[in-house]
Amino acid sequence: MVTTPADRSRPHVVLGVSGGIAAYKACELLRRFTESGHDVTVVPTAAALEFVGAPTWAALSGKPVSTEVWTDVHEVPHVRIGQTADLVVVAPATANTLAKAAQGLADDLLSNTLLTARCPVVFAPAMHTEMWEHPATQANVATLRERGALVIEPAEGRLTGADTGKGRLPDPAEIFAVATDVLARGGIGVRDLAGKHVVVSAGGTREFLDPVRFLGNRSSGLQGYALARTAASRGAEVTLVAANVSLPDPAGVKVVRVVTTAEMQEAVVAASRTADVVVMAAAPADFRPTSLAESKIKKSEDGSAPVVELTQNPDILKGLVTDRPNPGLVVVGFAAETGDANGTVMDHARAKLARKGCDLLVVNDVGGGKVFGSEDNEAVVLGADGTATPVPHGTKSALAQVIWDRVTDLLRSR
Q1: Which of 116, 175, 201, 401 has the highest Cβ tally under 10 A?
Q2: Boundary (domain end) residue, out of 185, 217, 240
Q3: 219 and 162 in one domain?
Q4: Domain DNA/pantothenate metabolism flavoprotein C-terminal: where (predicted)?
Q5: Element (H, E) at 230
């Protein structure tokens, strides 16, 4: 293995791959890293190469790969790879790899790299449910977290063979989002939401006119998903109530899928009974038709349009404030506003904060279609105490981190 010097103008990521059937998914993760400009060194275990061969990793990364510390020993790869890394991601991380990392074993190139790395380390576990739940694995995960590593909760779903349960490798897009967020923040950060249950809503609800048509909005759910993902990385138990969103489930997050505003209200209120925080990042429809046509509404021969009578939907945010499901619940709302003849964006936002009575209100200027569907965002976080925290243009994950910073301040004060 002739190592290629890292291009220090690009973030240097070490992608560790251990021996599980999910190793093939790491190819997609590698592609995302390389196509977004990261310099990636793949360090597979010998078992990983039983699932995906070395030529595949070499072709996708543009670098040769090895599992042994003895290859090109004059370049001391077992030390140099970890020393030069800006981030180490192990995906999939098997029970065996987690155990070796927790115990400080160093019997191959990946375990040596983990011992020499002084950068953030992210583990994405993948294994059968029984292996994940075993006390030995849970103890190893706790040890790694105590040492500052980020161990992502595995997803639930289809495992090897016909088995299903918790232990599935999170979607590569979600692992990539977590990893790039860690790089942007310059580290893992503290697990200051550990022991807290947070509920996040995302997406836009739909109110049906007939079997094929509905009233809806342009919400993509990206901001709500970023909030759920970052809360999980900060240690929270997260329930995500998602309306009509086509995004992979955030790693380690319980997802409840809904369609209408009434369904969202029911799911949010139910989850909030055991929650410490609720963040209403979704865009529930304000109105719904008073009646639902049993069949598709047809065009009239004379060209006249049907008259649709609307009624107002329940205000989920205001209801949470008025009838808090439990004392001490922190409630965060979102306001997608535009200026008009009656006031500026911030005028409308402050009036909405007073009207809703929530603890924090995240204000987006959506004039001209801004924010919807974009990977980036900018906002002002208003507090019921009169504070205003501007968040400059950046990723939705960056905004999510600021929101959780404000939330943790409120939780500490209660």
Answers
A1: 201
A2: 185
A3: no
A4: 193-409
A5: helix 222-233
Contact 330, 346 (CB under 8 A): no
pLDDT in tens, 23-43: 999 999 999 999 999 999 999
201 in the same domain as 73: no
> How far is residue 201 CA from its own chain's centroid?
13
Do 76 and 216 lie in one domain? The reply is: no
Indicate whether 7 belongs to any domain: no
Q: Which helix (H) or strand (E) element contains residue 124?
A: strand 121-125
Does 177 share its domain with 203?
A: no
96 labelled catalytic: no
Q: Which domain holds residue 148?
A: 12-185
**Is 206 in the same domain as 349?**
yes
Strand-strand pairing, 214-215 and 207-208: antiparallel
Q: Which range is least confidently modeled, 136-140, 175-179, 197-201?
A: 175-179
In one-letter notation, the amino acid at residue 8 is R
Query: Is 38 buried (19+), middle (13-18) or exposed (0-12) by CB count in 10 A?
Result: buried
Query: Is the residue at 2 inside a domain?
Result: no
CA-wise closest residue to 114 among 157, 72, 144: 144
What is the CATH number for 289?
3.40.50.10300
Same-domain pairing of 227 and 178: no
Buried b / exposed e over 381-401, threshold 16 CB at 10 Å, is bbbbeeeeeebeebbbbbbbb
**Binding-site residues for CTP, please?**
286, 296, 314-317, 334, 352, 356
- 162 Cβ contact list (under 8 Å, min separation 6): none
pLDDT band at 400 (very low <50, low <70, confident <90, very high): very high
Q: What is the predicted pLDDT for the residue at 3?
A: 44
β-pairing verdict for 87-93 and 12-17: parallel
Whether 211 and 164 share a structural domain: no
| 201 φ, ψ (degrees, to nearest 5) | -105, 150
Which long-range contacts (C-beta less than 8 Å, at least 24 apart) are formed by 62-70?
A: 62/4, 62/34, 63/3, 63/4, 64/1, 64/2, 65/1, 66/1, 66/109, 67/43, 67/108, 67/109, 67/110, 68/108, 68/109, 69/108, 69/109, 69/112
pLDDT of residue 158: 79
Cis amide prior to 77 (ω within 30 degrees): no
Total count of domains within the chain: 2
Annotated binding site: 286, 296, 314-317, 334, 352, 356
- pLDDT, tens digit, 9 for 90 and up, residues 369-392: 555 657 788 899 999 999 999 999
